Amino acid sequence: MTTPVALALAVGGLIVGVVLGFLIARGRARREERRPTGPTVAELLERLVRSSNNGVVVLNKFGDMVLHNPRAFELGLVKVNQADPRARKAAEQVVETEEPVEIDLSPLEARGRQPEAVLGEVRPLGDGFTVVEAVDHSEAARLEAVRRDFVANVSHELKTPVGAIALLTEAVLDAADDEAEVRRFGGKILRESTRLGQLVTELIALSRLQGAERLPDLNVVEVDAVVREALGRTTLSAESAQITITTDAASGLLIEGDRTLMVTALSNLLENAVAYSQPGSPVSISRRLVDGKVEIAVTDRGIGIAEDEQQRVFERFYRADKARSRATGGTGLGLAIVKHVAANHGGSVGLWSRPGTGSTFTLRIPAHIGAEPPAAAKQTPPASRPEKTPERTPRLVATGQESPDHGGNL
Predict the structure, then answer these.
(1) What phi and psi values does residue 312 have, to the nearest 5 degrees?
(2) Which residues pair with 103 in a beta bridge?
(3) Whole-angstrom Cα distance, residue 58 to residue 67?
(4) What is the distance between the alpha carbons of residues 235 and 129, in angstroms, rounded to a whole number?
(5) 341: pLDDT confidence band, cut at 50, 70 and 90?
(6) How far apart are CA 254 and CA 264, in angstroms?
(7) Cβ-based neighbour number of residue 327 at 10 Å
(8) pLDDT class of 203 with cuts at 50, 70, 90
(9) 150, 135 in Cβ contact below 8 A?
C-alpha cells in the first residue's frame, strides 16, 4: 500500500515538475520575443554580395572558389565553375605579399555584346583567403573611344576647308592681274569659308545640346509656326534642287519646347531630304497627335538608307552617301543635332527607309498639356503625304534615354 507520506512526495514532485516546465517554457517564450525578426547579419551580407553590380569571387589558399555572385559569371570572372586563371595567379601573389593587386580581366576575345573592359582588384582576407572584385568599365572605354573618334573627325573636317582656303588664297595672289580668275577663286573661297562657318556653328550647337551649356527654358510652341519657319529656311535649297515641299493642313498642335531648337531640327530634316532626293521628286511634311505626342514627319522619295546603316545615320560625321554629301556641302552633323534636340525635349526621332524608295524621319515630342487640339489634328495625315503601308511604320532608332554618342547625316 502507498503510505500517505509517499503519496505526498509524489504529488509534490508532480507539482514541482509542472512549475519547472512552466518556467522553462516561459523563459523560452521571452527569449523568442527578444530575438529580432527578419534576416540575420550573415544573410544580409550574402544578399549584398549576390546583388552587387560588381563581380565578387572568394578564393581559398589553393585557388578554389568558396563564394561567388551571379555578376561574376556575367563579367567572365567565373567560367566552368572556376575563377579566371589571371585572377587565380594574382591571388597567389596576394597570399604571399598580403598586398592588394589590380589586374585586367577584360575578355581575351570580343564576342557579341559581352563586357569589353573589365578591371579587377584582388585583396587579402587572411588565413589564405582572397577576394577578387571585378568592375565593368566598358561604358567608360566606349565613351573614350567616341571622344577620340570625335576629335579625329573634327580635326579632319576642319582641316579640309581650312586647307582649301589657304590654297585658293595662294591662287588668288598668283592671279592678281587676271580679274576673271580672281572672281572664280574668290567664289570658291566664299563657299569654303561658308562651309567652315556652318561646321563651327553646328559643332557649337551640338556641344550645347549635349550638356556643355544650359538649355533655354521650355515654352509653349506652335507646331504650325515651327513648320512655316523651317519651310522658309529650306525654300532656297529646295528651289535650287527643283524639289517641291508639300505640307498637310494647319493642325493647331502645341508642344512644350524651345522654338529655335525645334526649327533647327526640322530644317535639318528638310535639308537632309532635299540633299538626298533626285531633282523633281517630292518631299512632304505632316503633323498629327498620337498617344500624347506630336509627330512631325518628313518624307522623301530619295535614295533611301540601307537597314544596316539606319542606326548609324545619327552618328556625328556619318554619311550614308559620302559622294553626294561632298557635292551638297553637308557637315555630317545635321541628324546628330536632330537626335539631341528630340532627347532634350523628352522625345525621340524615328526612321523608316528603304533603298530606292525613300525615307521618313519622324520627330516625336510630348504635346502641351492642358490644350485640347482641334479634331483635325487627331486624324490620319492627308493624302498629300504618301500613305504608309504597315511596312513603312517608322522604326525607332534614337530615344531620349540614349547616351550622348555620335550622330549626323547632312
Answers:
(1) -90, -15
(2) 120
(3) 5
(4) 73
(5) confident
(6) 17
(7) 10
(8) low
(9) no
| Residues 217-273: tens digit of each pLDDT | 678 989 999 999 988 888 888 888 888 888 988 888 999 888 888 888 898 899 888
How large a percentage of the chain has pLDDT more than 90? Answer: 9
> What is the DSSP code (8-state) at residue 314?
G
* Helix, strand or coil, per DSSP, at residue 371: coil
Alpha carbon distance 364, 396 (integer Å): 10
The owner of cell 547616351 is 403
Cα 172 from chain centroid (whole Å): 47
Residue with cell 500500500: 1
Q: What is the pLDDT of residue 75?
A: 85
Q: How far apart are CA 47 and CA 69, in angstroms?
A: 9
- CA distances in angstroms from 328 to 100, 104, 199, 333, listed in the order given: 58, 47, 14, 14
> What's the pLDDT tens digit per position in 91-129?
888 888 888 988 888 887 655 556 778 888 999 988 889
Residue 334 pairs with which residues in a beta bridge? none
**291 grid coordinates:** 498617344
CB 291 within 8 A of CB 367: no
CA distance 40 to 35: 11
Mean pLDDT score of the chain, rounded to an integer? Answer: 75
Give the C-alpha separation, 310 to 304, whole Å: 10
- Mind listing the pLDDT tens digit for each residue in 277-330? 888 888 999 999 988 899 999 999 888 888 777 777 776 666 555 444 444 445
- Furthest-apart CA atoms within the chain: distance in Å: 152
Are 247 and 231 in contact, with CB atoms under 8 Å apart?
yes
One-letter amino acid identity for 275?
A
Contact at 8 Å (CB) between 309 and 325? no
**How far is residue 149's CA from residue 403's CA, in Å, rounded to a whole number?**
16
Here the cell at position 336 is: 546628330
